[in-house]
Design goal:
By secondary structure, the chain is mainly α. It is 54% helix and 2% strand. It is built from 15 helices and two strands. A two-stranded antiparallel sheet has the order 1-2. Helix 1 packs across helix 11, helix 2 crosses helix 3 and helix 5 crosses helix 6. The N and C termini lie far apart (50 Å).
């Protein structure tokens, strides 16, 4: 397995993209913000928003000092805006409980609002160089193909996925961090879901899926996300855009007019209120 890891690390050092969170001097807070933003959002959309965010709020205390609605406003079109609320809540917790310093311990990171298994280990590994297996969708796919001989991984399992990555992880801390990043990069730009670039893959000569003749995946799959067009998610997005654009309460009648289906629009609005993304006040609705 050491040869497997060494091959990935060597490839990564030669082929990694120049991304902000990989540059020297990038802060643990920046790493945490980037990990929140990168959840279900492409890198190309994250980079400009990340730079704006860190310019405005370079520390957790800076973000914690403003209302959560400002975080939602600055999130703009990144999608899944509850991440902005969680990130603001995490900044408040870091400021109040950790002296404004992002913790390096996985358990302490897991205790922050909105931080799950992946994000906690990613921050500990990439910001602080701690030795932890990190597993995202890209890494799961690389392991499924090269180690398990399957076209795609089965449904996520934290225990099983971490054990599979731990079995490959180098013992030395720097090598472990580089291997985590290298596996992620390999899955992002070479071992991609639909059209893998096997001729460019450093693991092609030992990939069990390739050796087996690229058999189709026949195992269990996770549910597919419903279509966005016409969905409650789209309605929520339209209403939230109206709230972001205004610094005063938006009357309920104006919000009702932004979505053609009145019943769906009202359901979307109440969902935003329930999730803490909108607040009913005198004169209408505002960001929190």
């Amino acid at each position: 397995m050491h040869d497997y890891a060494g091959t990935v690390v060597a490839w990564y050092q030669e082929n990694r993209r120049d991304l902000p969170w990989r540059r020297d001097g990038f802060t643990p807070w920046g790493t945490l913000v980037s990990e929140f933003m990168l959840q279900q959002t492409p890198v190309s959309r994250v980079i400009p928003r990340l730079e704006e965010w860190l310019s405005r709020w370079p520390t957790p205390a800076d973000l914690a000092s403003v209302p959560p609605g400002e975080a939602v406003r600055a999130w703009k079109s990144l999608g899944y805006p509850r991440r902005a609320l969680w990130l603001h809540a995490a900044a408040v917790t870091i400021t109040e409980r950790h002296g404004g310093v992002v913790p390096d311990d996985v358990d302490a990171l897991l205790a922050l609002p909105g931080v799950g298994d992946y994000t906690a280990r990613a921050v500990a590994a990439f910001a602080y160089g701690e030795r932890h297996p990190v597993v995202d969708t890209n890494i799961r796919r690389v392991i499924a193909r090269t180690v398990d001989g399957q076209a795609e991984p089965g449904p996520p399992s934290t225990r099983r996925d971490l054990a599979a990555m731990e079995a490959l992880l180098p013992e030395e801390r720097d090598a472990a961090a580089a291997f985590n990043a290298g596996m992620m990069e390999l899955g992002a730009i070479v071992c991609v879901a639909r059209t893998p670039r096997c001729d460019s893959c450093p693991l092609s000569d030992r990939c069990r899926w390739r050796q087996a003749g690229y058999p189709e995946y026949e195992g269990p799959t996770k549910g597919r996300q419903k279509r966005y067009e016409g969905s409650d998610r789209q309605a929520r997005g339209r209403i939230l855009a109206e709230l972001r654009a205004s610094h005063t309460p938006v009357p309920a009648g104006e919000l009702a007019a932004v979505w053609p289906d009145r019943e769906q629009g009202e359901r979307a609005l109440q969902g935003l209120v329930k999730d803490g993304l909108a607040v009913e006040t005198v004169g209408g609705y505002t960001l929190p």
